Structure to design on (249 residues):
């Protein structure tokens, strides 16, 4: 009994039942959705700035500028709603990560729970850093390639929904990929990943990273692939350091 009591204290309070976990998950999802709604409201207030000065800017700054056209009567309305939804998710990323880790918290030791705030901040910065990298580096390079490619006899009139789908998918993909250090930290804490393992298979990882960069980059030129591949290699090296310091003692 004494051992059971000490084990319960070590893991926090009493263990939650299955229905309690489901109830907790429901409230975490609701709170995450509330954050998305609030983020969407903020995005709706600044939607003109987001559309004209942010999302349309890469197309306008290419040489020659890309001509965007709307092919549906309701196309711009649907497009605005999609952008508001995606921006609501991006703006509420810290809250989404926080709710996720609070759901995982009951399974962590008290010594591990103190890292939750740092994990949320670090995860958010990694995701937003990936989005920023895609916007300022990948998109301009890819759009310049598309604008200059081909013959002058063909005019590049691009459907605006296809353009926005391309821009948003590239930014979100980069945001997810930049979570590699955070994934390494979590797997190392669980004892699944070790720095020795990562160093041993470094060459294999570089090959996989280059293949992944070729798949994720929007243009087939080697420059765009290296623009994503080199940061991913650096993130892999950073992940080795993070894994070293996050190994369970």
């Amino acid at each position: 009994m004494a051992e059971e009591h000490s084990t319960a204290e070590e893991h926090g309070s009493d263990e939650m039942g299955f229905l309690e976990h489901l109830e907790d998950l429901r409230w975490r999802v609701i709170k995450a959705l509330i954050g998305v709604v609030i983020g969407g409201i903020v995005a709706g207030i600044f939607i003109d700035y987001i559309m004209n000065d942010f999302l349309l800017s890469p197309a306008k700054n290419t040489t020659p500028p890309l001509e965007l056209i709307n092919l549906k009567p309701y196309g711009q309305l649907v497009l605005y709603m999609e952008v508001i939804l995606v921006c609501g998710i991006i703006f509420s990323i810290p809250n989404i990560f926080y709710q996720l880790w609070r759901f995982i918290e009951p399974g962590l030791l008290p010594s591990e729970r103190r890292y939750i705030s740092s994990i949320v901040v670090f995860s958010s910065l990694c995701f937003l850093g990936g989005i920023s990298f895609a916007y300022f580096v990948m998109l301009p390079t890819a759009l310049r390639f598309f604008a200059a490619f081909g013959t002058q006899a063909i005019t590049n009139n691009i459907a605006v929904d296809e353009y926005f789908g391309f821009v948003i998918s590239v930014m979100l993909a980069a945001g997810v990929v930049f979570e590699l250090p955070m994934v390494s930290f979590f797997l190392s804490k669980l004892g699944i990943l070790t720095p020795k393992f990562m160093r041993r298979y470094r060459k294999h990882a570089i090959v996989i990273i280059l293949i992944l960069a070729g798949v994720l980059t929007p243009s087939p030129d080697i420059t765009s692939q290296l623009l994503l591949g080199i940061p991913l290699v650096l993130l892999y090296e950073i992940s080795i350091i993070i894994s070293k310091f996050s190994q369970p003692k």
In short: The longest strand covers residues 67-69. The longest helix spans residues 116-148.
